[in-house]
């Protein structure tokens, strides 16, 4: 049965090539909602609005999400509020970055 | 909301020549510096002017133009008006720079032709940039404004430059010293520094993961620099000495505010690693601060050597390191984007940091830094041998830089 954990696990395969961490541990994925017919809505942000990989990262998240067998379709919304900051990342990331 | 997509991103084969030629010019300018006899030169000496043009046009402008091919869509949030124009900009800039250097060293008659070729290269760049700016529909942000201001100053600087070239070759009669002041200020402070202001506020917070910082210092710096550059440019046309000093003062305050803004970004960054990028920024800003101190010394001593050292530190230290540091971020990204991004999700791809030869990059930073500061000390003491030792280190740093660039470009 499809649940949020499965989706988060799939998205955690997407890595930001600049910092070398996956988007989930960076704290960039704000919310995962599973609607009727296993339609998934991912609400996420990026570490900067000027990210040159913006569109590609969104596409990678969508593809990773749709690789989960039960997902019928994935929609990715990028938001800038609340703005991301390092406190949203997990402890491993903070430690590795020296934050 | 904005995203760069493959339609906006220029192909790497378009941008690569700018970086390769730019780094070759970095090396060439270092080799050329061996021919300078600093015990007898002044800042108006043709060999110094030739070196300045090789360094500024061949290295700095070549790499800025190449970087702008990729960054204009990111910064202006629009695709280029005609990105293919970048295929003709670098050959024109290359040919024009070499011809100008030849003109300064061997034959002033070559100057107008070199200058005209550079003018065409820059007008082509400006045409694409201004036409891209026209496509902006959203409210202008700080970086967009700085790009617009910088390019207006570049246009004015190029016009001053071509008039100078005509005067230098004897085709027209003008006051070279006055107009040179306006030309240098418009291009160096008006274009290069203003561009650095704008791009720094996109790139440095992005790479350092800085958040929740004040923009007030850099916004004030941009206003002061704009008024300062205009003041010096106008003073150079009408011989208004007081206005030029007013311009210098504003520019100095502006640069101090820029340094303060960099300190703010440093304090608010989440990424605290001291990688080759961070080290390059530290050396760049240290050079800038050192040049301030020398300017203050010059006010008291009126020793012309101080002006030469200030110029050396700003060019090879501040500009040199901020540009080479960013090459270690921009070039791996472009190569990765072209070669590895299509493989994401299909196979394991490298991280950008894996694409940099760390030891060799650190060697480049070390040798280039030694070159900058030993060279500066040699200039300060008017000691030719010490200066040449610095130049030698700079050459070794340049060789490492070229090697690293090739390594990144060929990374598989």
Chain-wise SSE layout:
The complex is a heterodimer of chains A (99) and B (412).
Chain A: H1 4-11, E1 29-34, E2 39-44, H2 54-66, E3 73-78, H3 91-97
Parallel strand pairs in A: 2-3
Antiparallel strand pairs in A: 1-2
Helix pairs in contact in A: 1-2
Chain B: H1 12-33, H2 46-76, H3 86-105, H4 111-134, H5 142-168, H6 176-208, H7 216-238, H8 241-267, H9 276-301, H10 304-339, H11 358-381, H12 384-409
Sum this structure up briefly.
The complex is a heterodimer of chains A (99) and B (412). By secondary structure, chain A is of the alpha+beta class.
What do these coordinates show?
The complex is a heterodimer of chains A (99) and B (412). Chain A is 28% helix and 18% strand. Chain A contains 3 helices and 3 strands. The longest helix of chain A is centred in the middle third of the chain and has 13 residues, at 54-66. The radius of gyration of chain A is 13 Å and the shape is globular. Chain B is mainly α and 412 residues long. Chain B has a domain at 1-138. Chain B is 77% helix and 0% strand. Chain B has helices at 12-33, 46-76, 86-105, 111-134, 142-168, 176-208, 216-238, 241-267, 276-301, 304-339, 358-381, 384-409.
Number of strands of chain A: 3
Shape of chain B: globular
Write out the strand line-up for the largest beta sheet of chain A, numbering strands in chain order.
1-2-3
The percentage helix of chain B is over 70%
Name the helicity range of chain A.
25-40%
- Name the quaternary structure: heterodimer
User: Residue-averaged pLDDT of chain B, rounded?
Assistant: 90
Chain pair forming the biggest interface: A-B, 32 and 32 residues
Return residue spans of chain A where pLDDT drops below 50 for at least 5 consecutive residues.
none
Reading the helices and strands of chain A in chain order gives: HEEHEH
Number of helices of chain B: 12
CATH topology type of chain A: GMP Synthetase, Chain A, domain 3
What structural class results from the helix and strand content of chain A? alpha+beta
Instruction: Output the helix-strand order of chain B.
Output: HHHHHHHHHHHH
Q: In total, how many domains does the architecture of chain A comprise?
A: 1
* Low-confidence parts of chain B: 1-6
Cα-to-Cα separation, first versus last residue of chain A = 38 Å
């Amino acid at each position: 049965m499809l649940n949020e954990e499965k989706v988060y696990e799939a998205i955690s395969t997407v890595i930001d090539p600049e910092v070398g961490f996956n988007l989930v541990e960076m704290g960039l994925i704000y919310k995962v909602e599973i609607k009727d017919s296993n339609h998934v809505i991912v609400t996420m942000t990026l570490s900067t609005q000027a990210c040159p990989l913006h569109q590609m990262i969104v596409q990678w998240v969508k593809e990773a999400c749709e690789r989960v067998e039960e997902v019928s379709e994935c929609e990715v919304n990028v938001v800038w509020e609340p703005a991301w900051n390092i406190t949203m990342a997990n402890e491993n990331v903070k430690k590795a970055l020296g934050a | 909301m904005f995203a760069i997509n493959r339609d906006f991103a220029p192909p790497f084969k378009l941008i690569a020549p700018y970086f390769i030629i730019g780094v070759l010019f970095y090396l060439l300018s270092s080799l050329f510096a061996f021919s300078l006899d600093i015990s007898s030169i002044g800042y108006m000496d043709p060999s110094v002017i030739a070196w300045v043009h090789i360094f500024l046009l061949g290295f700095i402008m070549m790499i800025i133009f190449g970087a702008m091919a990729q960054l204009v869509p990111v910064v202006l949030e629009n695709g280029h008006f005609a990105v293919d124009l970048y295929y003709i900009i670098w050959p024109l800039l290359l040919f024009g720079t070499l011809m100008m250097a030849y003109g300064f060293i061997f034959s002033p008659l070559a100057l107008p032709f070199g200058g005209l070729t550079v003018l065409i290269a820059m007008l082509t760049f400006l045409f694409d940039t201004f036409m891209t700016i026209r496509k902006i529909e959203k409210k202008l942000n700080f970086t967009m404004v700085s790009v617009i201001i910088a390019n207006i100053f570049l246009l004015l600087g190029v016009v001053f430059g071509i008039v100078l070239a005509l005067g230098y070759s004897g085709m027209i009669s003008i006051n070279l010293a006055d107009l040179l002041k306006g030309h240098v200020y418009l291009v160096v402070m008006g274009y290069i520094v203003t561009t650095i202001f704008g791009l720094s506020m996109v790139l440095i917070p992005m790479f350092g993961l800085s958040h929740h910082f004040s923009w007030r210092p850099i916004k004030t710096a941009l206003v002061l620099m704009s008024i300062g550059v205009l003041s010096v440019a106008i003073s150079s046309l009408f011989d208004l000495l007081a206005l030029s000093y007013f311009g210098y003062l504003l520019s100095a305050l502006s640069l101090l505010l820029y340094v303060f803004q960099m300190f703010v970004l440093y304090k608010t960054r989440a990424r605290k690693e001291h990688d080759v990028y961070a080290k390059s920024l530290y050396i760049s800003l240290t050079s800038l601060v050192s040049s301030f101190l020398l300017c203050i010394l010059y006010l008291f001593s009126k020793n012309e050597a101080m002006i030469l050292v200030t110029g050396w530190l700003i060019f090879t230290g501040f500009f040199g390191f901020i540009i080479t540091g960013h090459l270690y971020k921009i070039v791996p990204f472009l190569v990765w984007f072209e070669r590895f991004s299509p493989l994401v999700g299909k196979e394991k791809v490298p991280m950008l940091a894996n694409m940099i030869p760390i030891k060799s990059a650190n060697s480049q930073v070390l040798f280039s830094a030694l070159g900058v500061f030993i060279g500066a000390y040699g200039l300060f003491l008017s000691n030719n041998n010490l200066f040449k030792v610095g130049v030698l280190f700079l050459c070794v740093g340049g060789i490492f830089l070229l090697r690293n660039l090739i390594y990144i470009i060929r990374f598989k």
